Amino acid sequence: xxxxxxxxxxxxxxxxxxxxxxxxxxxxxxxxxxxxxxxxxxxxxxxxxxxxxxxxxxxxxxxxxxxxxxxxxxxxxxxxxxxxxxxxxxxxxxxxxxxxxxxxxxxxxxxxxxxxxxxxxxxxxxxxxxxxxxxxxxxxxxxxxxxxxxxxxxxxxxxxxxxxxxxxxxxxxxxxxxxxxxxxxxxxxxxxxxxxxxxxxxxxxxxxxxxxxxxxxxxxxxxxxxxxxxxxxxxxxxxxxxxxxxxxxxxxxxxxxxxxxxxxxxxxxxxxxxxxxxxxxxxxxxxxxxxxxxxxxxxxxxxxxxxxxxxxxxxxxxxxxxxxxxxxxxxxxxxxxxxxxxxxxxxxxxxxxxxxxxxxxxxxxxxxxxxxxxxxxxxxxxxxxxxxxxxxxxxxxxxxxxxxxxxxxxxxxxxxxxxxxxxxxxxxxxxxxxxxxxxxxxxxxxxxxxxxxxx
Length: 455
Hints:
Blueprint: E1 4-10, E2 13-19, E3 24-31, H1 34-44, E4 53-55, E5 57-64, E6 68-81, E7 87-100, E8 103-113, E9 116-120, E10 124-129, E11 132-140, E12 144-151, E13 156-169, E14 173-186, E15 189-203, H2 231-234, E16 236-244, E17 248-252, E18 255-267, E19 274-281, E20 286-289, E21 292-296, E22 299-305, E23 311-319, E24 324-331, E25 336-343, H3 348-357, H4 368-386, E26 393-396, E27 402-407, E28 412-418, E29 423-429, E30 434-441, E31 445-451
Parallel strand pairs: 15-16, 15-17
Antiparallel strand pairs: 1-2, 2-3, 3-5, 4-6, 5-6, 6-7, 7-8, 8-9, 8-10, 10-11, 11-12, 12-13, 13-14, 14-15, 16-18, 17-18, 18-19, 18-20, 19-22, 20-21, 21-23, 22-23, 23-24, 24-25, 26-27, 27-28, 28-29, 29-30, 30-31
């Protein structure tokens, strides 16, 4: 019956208590540093399995008749350290919940994890009866509802999820989705089955931030890591279908295309994750290359298991001043087969000359191999530029020779030549027609003066 009014300070925590336990008691907790609080508690009592959390938390609890409690929690950032190198960061946390005997009511919540905003103002309800947990409703973004049950004793349970027109906003995509799935839990085994329907939206993935080794035989030593065993993934089995009812839009210089997805994601326990199906690129998409616009015909990217090794079936056309050029690409991204055609008829060398120089005349003075090397160099330079690698000089020479250069100033360019004997060149542009080139390798040095003019 007595009124409580006081404060507790411990490490990075401040707790204020005010009210009557038999009526209403308010407990305001402000933790400026969870890590400091843990260290302070460890001096008094050895806590086991204390979660490795960092950050600050503000909690207001209102306890009524010592039976029910309403909690309001907020935090700008919480960091969970799964291991020495892996950290999970949750930002902008705000939630309200009600505890009543064995019932937990999550009235509302909002947070950001992995740049994905998660929220709900629809109440979620969970009941706990001994070892049994019953989820009457658990809402995600006001649209995905999960119900189910789980036994802590037998470690078995089932979850069922359904979503209608859920709007997902992420740094990679902004899409609307329908979804239904079943999750079966049995001890350490998880089985997921269901369907995801993409209702339309935009793909926002920035291809300029993507970097990778173009050859699977290339190993970057700095990136080598001992493969970690993941018990969850090892014991996971899945069968999910992903389809679109309306094409997704991907528009980012130099690409403007639409995408239709029909894929299956399959996995058996102790097996790899397999992606099966195809992605359709409807007619009308475009790609800008060398300031020329290539228009897609109906094309496909087929997946036969390994997500990183799809099969290509891409058709495109380019309309020059006097010719309609067709390009057909098959094979894999690593080893593509490229076939050219034109109306009126041109040889392959003439077609490449039109694409590179806007004239078929270059095809009469260069061999097919030379034209393909020039084409490959131009494509590689454009692709590297699209991927955020800005280079100013790229030449594919004889054999496996490659020249890669970068401008230091408007007049000075440094070039690395990966030939039989690797060398370095320093090129200085004196004027529009004259330049000096200093070359050096382990066998010799050279100095050339080059004069260029147009005829």
